[in-house]
Amino acid sequence: MNDWSLLEQLKEGDEAAFKQVVDTWQDMVYNTAMGIVQSAEDAEDVAQEVFVQVYQSIHSFKGESKLSTWLYRITITKSLDHERKKKRKKRSGLIRTLFGKDDDEVAELPDFNHPGVSLENKEKAGVLLKAVASLPENQRIAFTLNKLEGLSYQEISEIMENSISSVESLLHRAKANLRKNLEDFYKAQ
Amino acid sequence: MEKKSEIRNRVEETLSSLDDIQRATPGHFFYTRLQGRLMRQRKNIWEKITSFISQPVIAISVSCVVILFNVLILIQNDQTPNISDRVENNLADEYLQIITFYEAENP
Questions:
Q1: CB under 8 Å to A10, separation ≥6 — which residues?
Q2: pLDDT tens per residue, range A57-67
Q3: Is B18 in contact with A121 (Cβ distance < 8 A)?
Q4: B2 in contact with A, Cβ within 8 Å
């Protein structure tokens, strides 16, 4: 079933079409969410929210972009919303508002092991992902889409609605920031 | 100097640690859990509507509006003369005219 006919059936509320969408893209949505929220439980929660939104707002999808592009955008939005809610909850704690700094939140991130990383790279990947979590949002998104989803600059530019040169710049700055963070981390060890 | 190059190497190795990463996948029965969530959301919408309607303030306000509406209609009906009453009055008037005319013709 091609995208167009699948879309038409989705808009008619066809459950088989919806199941096909979920089966086809659940890994993509889950993996992207996991790259941003860095928790299996939260990634599952976000992935479900994404498909609930797809189900409820399929009529607003005009088909100007690919279905996968639309799904990536919803996933990124939901993941970032999830992160912001978590940060707000943390900040509302009295002790944190009195004594905490923003930097402390990165240091307090639990160690995250991405299940898709090979055993010999687990430790280094954990350090890298922690550093990724401290990047500015746009750099973090571009890095996640490039490294965890294996997307090209062209594909990332369509999802983020930026030019290819903007994506290149984001990735370049992300790597520079990561290099700096990692150098500081290993120097301190 | 050595330490610097060692750190640089570690940094580069760390940056490459995601190169062969495989996609993470959600647990089994993801679609089943998703269906459960959708069903709970639908129930929640109906629960919200019914709980909103059943709030005393809302229920009493709606009842008052309905009663007021009925009272207004009743008042309007009282003020407007009934067509059948008008027809009866016209017939009565005509009859009286006929009687009067008859009596006038035949004293």
A1: A17, A18, A21, A54, A58
A2: 998 888 888 99
A3: yes
A4: no
